[in-house]
């Protein structure tokens, strides 16, 4: 990952003066979806780029050491070797950006990756994911325990009650505490945008999270009714740009929740490139949080490379 965002002092003025032009945001969101995607001959390269930005995720009640192990093996070899060879990419060390699991499965993931001699980071959701409705001390303890077990990236959830009641400074203080509990682990802050009611709240929460030292801001847990959408992404990306222009610190962006198709991943890459520039199109500043996206990307790459559609058994780990 890149150098960290140290954060700034809390500045209520910066948060309060925000006005979001909803019509303009919706128009921009519509235009990005209608836009031409990378030309056919470049699509496989773009899809591989998307693969390298995936936080390959499993966040299920029935997660076990064995399905976490399979996830880790898939993260190490996300696309079939023969397909990569045909693209002359077999020796480029293509892997996903991270694996993402619940705190109680971190040790399993660390063990599997270590046994396979892989340095892929383990990310863990924490702080009472997904609702964040547990006592502060237990949320902090969860972060410390995930870090102790070897997670080097922590995806925290914000306290939506504080955001919805305009207690921005209290939210800043909580996130600061989470940042301290993370230690050297990079912190991604999940805004749960589907529960923030307005685009202004999305902008304000983004700014508060960055002021408090988040290394990434992330749209959603994947468990809200509405997850990563293009309008909220545009607001968050503009906040990242504003924060960068004011402080010189680059904060990463992670859309997550409901991203399932190769086509969508191309739209996300295009949006990031246009809003923040190519510099952000790397795993240290861009992640796609997804549990089932990789399967569709691999299928699409199979089609690009062989001209045929893969049967289910031909991509068994997808
Ligand atoms: O953080 C990642 C999300 O939980 C993944 O959501 P998803 O299962 O809808 O891909």
Task: Describe the main β-sheet briefly.
Answer: 8 strands, parallel
* Euclidean distance between termini CA atoms: 26 Å
Low-confidence segments, given as residue ranges, are none
If you consult CATH, what is the topology?
TIM Barrel
Spatial strand sequence of the major β-sheet: 7-6-5-4-3-2-1-8
**Tally of alpha and pi helices:** 13
Shape: globular
**Overall average residue pLDDT:** 95
Just give the CATH class.
Answer: Alpha Beta
Bound molecules: glyceraldehyde-3-phosphate
Q: Quote the beta fraction.
A: 5-15%
Strand segment tally: 8
Helix percent reads 40-55%
- CATH 4th-level superfamily: Aldolase class I
Overall SS class: alpha/beta
Radius of gyration: 19 Å
Order of helix and strand elements from N to C terminus: HHHEHHEHEHEHHEHEHEHEH
CATH architecture tag: Alpha-Beta Barrel
| Overall tally of structural domains | 1
GO cellular component, one term: cytoplasm
InterPro entries: Aldolase_TIM, DeoC, DeoC/FbaB/LacD_aldolase
EC number: 4.1.2.4
Catalytic activity: 2-deoxy-D-ribose 5-phosphate = D-glyceraldehyde 3-phosphate + acetaldehyde
